[in-house]
Each structure stands twice: as structure tokens, then as C-alpha cells.
Amino acid sequence: MEGYEVVNVNFDLNGKVAIVTGASRGIGRTIAEGLAQAGADVALTARTEAEVLAAAHEISLATGRRALGIACDVTDKRSVDSAVQQVVERFGKIDILVNNAGTNIRHSAFELSEEEWDFVVDTNLKSVFLMSQAAGSHMIERQSGRIVNIASVASELTLSFSTAYGPSKAAVVQLTKQLASEWARYGVTVNAVSPWFIRTSLNAEALDDPDNQKMIEQRTPMGRYGRLEEVVAPVLFFCSEGAGYVTGQNLFVDGGVTHYGV
């Protein structure tokens, strides 16, 4: 039809290079594998060298993409800068950063020590800043990049059993917005994905506990916990060229729990 414009939407990650933190297992590993399946070469970081090297090797075999495992303490600037430099030296560039590394200590306010507070906040928040700063400088230099931060529904809702986790994730969302505003002019987008309970091999036993199942079923409009692929898909979207005009957003992957009414 005359005057009709054909629009091509590109979600292909072929030729892209991605870093995923906390990627030796669980959600991080699945995200790394999903990025590789979409065509990206991936660098995985985690504290335990043996685990992250094994994960990288298995992902490379499964997907045919190049995968690099790096032992890295994402709360330490020297370790972060070294890891990012290794990725640049190995792959020549950085297109995507997924800040997935995180932790939780299930203590209430009077049970939580100062050291435990610092550990949770450093792992969940400081790591996002350090990794974004290090990888973002390369992205800004190239005038292109995608950063995705894994936050949590606890950025919006309070948790009765964990005082430090929610505030640290709320700060991740605010940092997402701040960096999105600062770096949009350089072609770098920064977004967040906030999951509810997601079943992994690490938490399957806990989620299968009858009390936990009952709580999730009653609290979640969809009546179930999430699946790994339901987190990976939004991450892939934010990493793609198709999301080029989306920045500073926090997408809840929660079965409707953050909009639950009475």
C-alpha cells in the first residue's frame, strides 16, 4: 500500500557481548544461557571460580557461543575493574550488562547486625553501582549499551522477615532511574526487572513446603510462583534493539502480587 511504512523489530542479539553477574547458578546462570541462545557471547561472573568456569563451559557447549567465566567479587572495585577489562580484552567490547548478583539475610531489624546490613547492601546495591560504572564507561565510549538490573518485588512491598533486602532493592530501582537519566544521551539504556518468587533448583525444596505454597497461592493473583523463563524473557527484551526507546523502567514479573487488592 502506498505510504505504508514497514517496521522491522529486532530482538536478535547476534554479535553482542554480555556480562552477567552472579551467574554460576540459579537465575543468573539461566539469564546467561538465555542471552547466549539469543546469539550473544557471554561473560559470567561469580565469587567461586570453579562454579563459574563450569557454568561458562556448559553454556558454551549447549549454545555454541563463546562464554567466559570470571571469578569476581562484585563488591570490590579492583575485582570489578579487572573483570570488565578481561571481558574487553577477550571480546573487544561490552554491549550488555545484567546485574544479577544478590543476597539476603532473613533477619528483622533487631536481629540484624551492622555487618549483616553492610553485606546485604554491598552485595545488592554497591555491586550494581560498581559494575555499571565500569561497564558503562565502555558503553558510553561506544555510544551504545544495555544495562538490566535484577531487583525484586521487595523494592515495592515490605517483607516481614528481612529488613535489609527490600531497602537495598528499592535503592537498586532508584539507581536504575538515576543512571537511565544520566546516560540516555549516550545511547545507553538502564532498566530493572523485579521478580516475585521464582522456582530454581536452589529454592525448590523451600517453595514446595506446604506453608510456603499456601502463602504464594493466596497472595498471588495467578496462584503460583514464577518460572525461570518468565524472568529471562523480559531481560532479553530490555537487552534488544527493540527496546531502544525504553529506559528507566522497572518491570514487575510477579503474577500480579504488587497490584493485589483486598
Q: Low-confidence spans: pLDDT under 50, at least 5 residues?
A: none
CATH domain class: Alpha Beta
| Distinct helical segment count | 8
Number of strands: 7
Percent in strands: 5-15%
Bulk shape: globular
Instruction: Using the CA coordinates, give the radius of gyration.
Output: 18 Å
Describe the sheet with the most strands.
Answer: 7 strands, parallel
Domain Ketoreductase: 16-196
Keywords: Oxidoreductase
GO molecular function: oxidoreductase activity, acting on the CH-OH group of donors, NAD or NADP as acceptor
Family: Belongs to the short-chain dehydrogenases/reductases (SDR) family.
Give the secondary structure arrangement, pairings included:
Layout: E1 17-21, H1 26-37, E2 41-46, H2 49-63, E3 67-71, H3 77-91, E4 96-99, H4 114-142, E5 145-150, H5 165-183, E6 188-195, H6 204-207, H7 210-219, H8 228-239, E7 250-253
Parallel strand pairs: 1-2, 1-4, 2-3, 4-5, 5-6, 6-7
Describe this structure in words.
Keywords: Oxidoreductase. Belongs to the short-chain dehydrogenases/reductases (SDR) family. Pfam families: adh_short_C2 (PF13561). The chain is an alpha/beta fold and 262 residues long. It has one domain: Rossmann fold, CATH 3.40.50.720. 44% of the residues lie in helices and 15% in strands. The protein has 8 helices and 7 strands. The chain has a 7-stranded parallel beta sheet, with helices on both faces. Helix 1 runs parallel beside helix 2, helix 1 packs across helix 8 and helix 4 packs parallel to helix 5. The model has no long low-confidence stretch (mean pLDDT 94).
